[in-house]
Amino acid sequence: MKINKRAVSKMDKSGSGFTLIEMMISMTVMAVGLLGLNVMFVTAMVTNNKNSHDSSATMISQLVLEQISAQPGNSTANITITDCAGNVRTIATAPGAALTGAGAPLLADGTINQLAAKVANYSMTYVACAPAGSNLQSDYDVRWNVMTVSPDTRLITVSARQLNGTRLGALHFALPVNLRSIGGR
Question: What is the pTM assigned to this prediction?
Fold first, then answer.
């Protein structure tokens, strides 16, 4: 069988494959895509961390709210809780008059004013637990207000936010969690 040399040489010169410029363009497109994925992964990690701290703030608020709610509606006794650092914190449960209550000042919408000065025994810095062996304990600013609704019932509002919360560049923010419940008989 005779092979045509012209046909073989035309196949070799047909230009099948990529040129160097095509390879550089495709590598640039791929690099831009991977950079976009990298930004997405970093954003997801930051958001996951922030959500974890928001969940912890909610659980700490719920802890304080349940401790106060467990007391009789007309109780003025102080109770104590211990945080993960072993700090014993005093929680005042004495209610104040309607509309203002006792403890942390309220905003017009009924939430705790986190910018106001702390009120003794109606605020604390709570240290949340971290996994064993890690150095990731977080501090939370917890404040509460107790308001008389009736002789045996009170409105309890608790707010918590992470101290030194999420940082985005020079911006620092940690939105407080506010919980509200009626306690008493």
Answer: 0.73
